[in-house]
TrEMBL record:
<feature type="domain" description="HTH lysR-type">
    <location>
        <begin position="8"/>
        <end position="65"/>
    </location>
</feature>
<dbReference type="InterPro" id="IPR005119">
    <property type="entry name" value="LysR_subst-bd"/>
</dbReference>
<dbReference type="GO" id="GO:0006351">
    <property type="term" value="P:DNA-templated transcription"/>
</dbReference>
<dbReference type="GO" id="GO:0043565">
    <property type="term" value="F:sequence-specific DNA binding"/>
</dbReference>
<dbReference type="Pfam" id="PF00126">
    <property type="entry name" value="HTH_1"/>
</dbReference>
<dbReference type="InterPro" id="IPR058163">
    <property type="entry name" value="LysR-type_TF_proteobact-type"/>
</dbReference>
<comment type="similarity">
    <text>Belongs to the LysR transcriptional regulatory family.</text>
</comment>
<dbReference type="GO" id="GO:0003700">
    <property type="term" value="F:DNA-binding transcription factor activity"/>
</dbReference>
<keyword id="KW-0238">DNA-binding</keyword>
<protein>
    <submittedName>
        <fullName>LysR family transcriptional regulator</fullName>
    </submittedName>
</protein>
<dbReference type="InterPro" id="IPR000847">
    <property type="entry name" value="LysR_HTH_N"/>
</dbReference>
<dbReference type="InterPro" id="IPR036390">
    <property type="entry name" value="WH_DNA-bd_sf"/>
</dbReference>
<keyword id="KW-0804">Transcription</keyword>
<dbReference type="Pfam" id="PF03466">
    <property type="entry name" value="LysR_substrate"/>
</dbReference>
<keyword id="KW-0805">Transcription regulation</keyword>
<dbReference type="InterPro" id="IPR036388">
    <property type="entry name" value="WH-like_DNA-bd_sf"/>
</dbReference>
């Protein structure tokens, strides 16, 4: 079969797209399951084919040239169009795969899923509760929900909802009457300690000498707080039901956290979503808006 006179070899385009997204020949090789030297060869082949440099080398780092940035946008759009065509020919699946934090799944999303099923009974939501990063570019999930600052390289991010925080604890242990009283208790920490820092700075509390207990998942933090093991920093989006039932109480000031404390809906940049993923995204954003308005 004769090769097109204007289309470069597909392996070179795939290697270029991976390097352009990751800005690393090594990481691109790991993603494509080929050696770093093979990636370099493919990119060099493409540069020779096009007659121009696509990357600038700066010691151990690289950056896209103006021509490289322009060409990467075209290549990404081309791959996205091909993926959309494949889905159209094969039939759009009804399953949407979502990678998300276990705490967000258990305390916010799962209780709302019956409303999604009532509106869209043909859509199946496959939840993957995980604390680890997920490579949406590899198709391991359609969407991801993460908590933190708006810094997600290679992904498109939409703010799902911002968070407000305040200490929460069991009503069965020594009460908190002023912010400094948290220092009389063990502070229960998850992987992310920024929530405590934001609240403490706003309320003028120095946490340097505080006793702490490091836990992995925020669900464990809330469980330990409910059992009277210490004070947790409550994310109001996730603890509202526990506050309503009295499982936890929140006697101290509430602090609206900055951009670093928000939930983000993530998808692969340049990839057209499936029909089920698009429907789930629209429903999720609507649920988040209603939740914020009710709050």
């Amino acid at each position: 079969m004769r090769r097109s006179a204007t289309l470069p070899p597909l392996p070179s385009l795939r290697a270029f797209a991976a390097v352009g997204r990751l800005l690393s020949f090594r990481k691109a090789g790991e993603e494509l399951l080929i050696t770093q030297s093979a990636v370099s060869h493919h990119v060099k082949q493409l540069e020779d084919y096009l007659g121009t440099a696509l990357f600038e080398r700066h010691g151990r780092t690289i950056s896209l040239t103006p021509a490289g940035r322009s060409f990467l946008a075209r290549v990404d759009a081309g791959f996205a169009a091909i993926e959309a065509g494949v889905r159209e020919v094969r039939g759009d699946p009804s399953t949407v795969r979502v990678s998300l934090l276990p705490s967000f799944a258990a305390n916010w999303l799962v209780p709302r899923l019956p409303r999604l099923r009532a509106l869209n009974p043909d859509i199946v939501v496959d939840l993957d509760p995980s604390l680890e990063t997920v490579d949406l570019g590899q198709g391991t999930a359609d969407l991801a929900i993460r908590y933190g600052a708006p810094d997600w390289p290679g992904l498109e991010a939409e703010c799902l909802m911002r968070e407000a925080v305040t200490p929460v604890l069991s009503g069965n242990i020594k009460p908190l009457r002023e912010p400094r009283d948290v220092l009389r208790h063990t502070l229960l920490l998850s992987r992310r300690e920024t929530d405590w820092q934001v609240w403490a700075e706003a309320c003028g509390v120095d946490l340097a000498e505080a006793r702490t207990l490091q836990l992995v998942d925020y669900n464990l933090v809330l469980q330990a707080a409910a059992e009277g093991q210490g004070v947790a920093m409550g994310r109001l989006s996730l603890v509202r039901e526990r506050l309503r039932t009295g499982a936890l109480i929140a006697p101290l000031p509430v602090v609206s956290a900055p951009d670093g404390a928000a939930y983000w809906l993530l998808c692969a940049k340049g990839r057209a979503p499936s029909r089920s993923a698009a429907i789930f995204r629209q429903w999720l954003l609507a649920e988040a808006r209603m939740f914020a308005e009710a709050a």
